[in-house]
Amino acid sequence: MELLISLIFAAGLARLGGKHMQMLNWPLYGAGAVFAFTACLAYLLTLQDKVLKTGAGVGHILAVCDNGTLGTAFFIVVMFGAVLPRHWDLRKNIMRTRGELSILGGIVLLPHLFHYVIDTLLHLDRFKAMEGMAFWTFTMMVLLGLYAGVIFIPLWVTSFPRVRKKLKGKRWKNIQRHAYLFYAFVYLHVMLAYALHPENTYIFASCLYTLLFVAYLILRFQKRAREAIGIVVVALKTKGGIHDRS
After folding, report:
1. pLDDT by residue (tens digit) across 209-246?
2. Using an 8 Å Cβ cutoff, are 54 and 80 in contact?
3. Residue 159 near residue 102, CB atoms below 8 Å
4. Overall pTM surpassing 0.85 (yes/no)
5. Alpha-carbon gap, residue 216 to 211, rounded angstroms
6. CB neighbours of 185 closer than 8 A, spacing ≥ 6?
7. In the chain, is it the N or the C terminus that has fewer CB atoms within a 10 Å radius of its CB?
């Protein structure tokens, strides 16, 4: 349910923000940074057996920052923006604001990376305590999470306009192409994490992640097929025009 609510929020922000996102970006970045910092602080306090007291609403926001759900939702929305039908208003708004959405998503995803790296380093003994399929599942989950984090950093940094202006267009595009690997690693990381905790509460989230991933692949394939057909049609028309002149 957290993922669904986060997706609705991210898509709603893109839909409502639209042309005004550039006016609202820094206030949004500031709010995201405050929640991100607070989520990191709350995690550090748990390491000392302390609890950061907040209201229920703030607590839920900190939770989806800490577990990466909110940041992932922003990147899922950006991901779908490139494959949705061109005539959809939602697609137009996402494509118009994808830079801001990526930056904001990166800000609120940082607490999860912070938590993940520290937790892994503090509990390396878990690798020794596991064996068999549990060991390999946990190891692959950790490695995929680290790989996704390494890919995420340059993707996020190059989303900032000032950084993007300093890069040549071709180099920027080459960096952004790694987003496909990032999406794939995130999906596999999440699925393996849920496999280690097969409680009923994770079934809905697992199904939703899988549904979104499959839907994206289908839309991506359809887009590539349309582009390929368009290239063939143009080539045939061009060839026919040459024959007509001769």
Report:
1. 999 999 999 998 888 888 788 777 777 777 665 555 55
2. no
3. yes
4. yes
5. 9
6. 144, 145, 147, 148, 151
7. C
